[in-house]
Amino acid sequence: MTDSETTAAESDTGPAADGREPEPALVALGGGHGLYATLTAARRLTRTITAVVTVADDGGSSGRLRAELGMLPPGDLRMALAALAEDPDGVWARAVQHRFGGTGALAGHSVGNLIVAGLTEVLGDPVAALDEVGRILRTTGRVLPMSPTALTIEADVSGLEADPRVSRCIRGQVAVATTPGKVRRVRLIPSDPPASPEATSAIEHADVVVLGPGSWFTSVIPHVLVPELRAALVHTRARKVLVLNLAAEPGETAGFSAERHLHVLSQHAPDFAVEDVVVDSGSVPEGREREHVARAAEQLRARVTFADVAEAGTDRHHPGKLAAALDQVIRQPRPESARLRVEGRHMGRQVRSASGGKERVSWR
């Protein structure tokens, strides 16, 4: 039995033989830099981690390899592997992240992307290829594609025509992410892609599932658009936590408030619910704006926790702060109803802050 299998077994059967509390099985969903932040934080909490990664990228090195070889775009998968590497500063971790310069055929390609591409052809299975790279990097956990099929994102975007009520259909992740208009809705092509069986199994057996942060329309919402993946997320017994972005992204979510992020997620998956939403306290001022976020979270039947999770002076999550916020949120007793607990003055709802009232309970 491997170390990861031993840990999983302990999680199912109770405390470890030495009396320590078993580590939780945590699944993180997303893509790109947002998922990298979540994984960097998660590895401070547990060694049993599964990253489930979007596979719709069509730009840069990933787009080229996808078009030329008909493979899954490897870039976001590679970044997740690097985030979980035993030694993030070691030679192998730096090598897989290295991008070739120059002007030749290799210019712009990441070494890791090429390794994943080569192993996929040799082994005939993208999951086996990712597991092999994971062994080379001695990763803390496993990296999986959300679907075995490369996907295409299509969006309805307004603001591109003279009439603001008219939407234009934009296709492709890069095009959607960089459009100057306002994204109204996104779809996947094909509309009902299969989910990776390993990904749905990980979600079904997880103790904690974390969705976000990341590019909202192209890295976060796609997970609830894959029918089998959404079904697993709806029915899992895991504690589900949504981590909001620190700021709106130019193009994709320009002008979006924290409240709006929650609304569009709910609109895309009305049956999807989470128990907790983590929001950076510096991103949403106290008072009316936090009340709006709380009401929006009601659509997801979630309670909101405001905590300092930002790296000072940036729009990036600080791994240590995010880990502390996640640890505190998921150690709280599970909510008994859909009523929200929001940090700040009492607003007819229970009040909770990530800065106090921590109760040590089991991950289950």
Automatic annotation (TrEMBL):
An annotated GO BP: regulation of cell shape
Keyword Cytoplasm: yes
Keywords: Cytoplasm
Start and end residues of each stretch annotated as Disordered: 1-23, 334-364
InterPro entries (alphabetical): CofD (IPR002882), CofD-like_dom_sf (IPR038136), Gluconeogen_factor (IPR010119)
Cellular component GO terms held in the UniProt record: cytoplasm
Residue ranges, compositional bias (Basic and acidic residues): 334-346
Chain intervals with Polar residues compositional bias: 1-10
Family, per entry: Belongs to the gluconeogenesis factor family.
Job description of the protein: Required for morphogenesis under gluconeogenic growth conditions.
Entries under PANTHER family matching the protein: GLUCONEOGENESIS FACTOR-RELATED, UNCHARACTERIZED PROTEIN YVCK-RELATED
Protein name: Putative gluconeogenesis factor
Protein species of origin: Nocardia wallacei
Lineage: Bacteria, Bacillati, Actinomycetota, Actinomycetes, Mycobacteriales
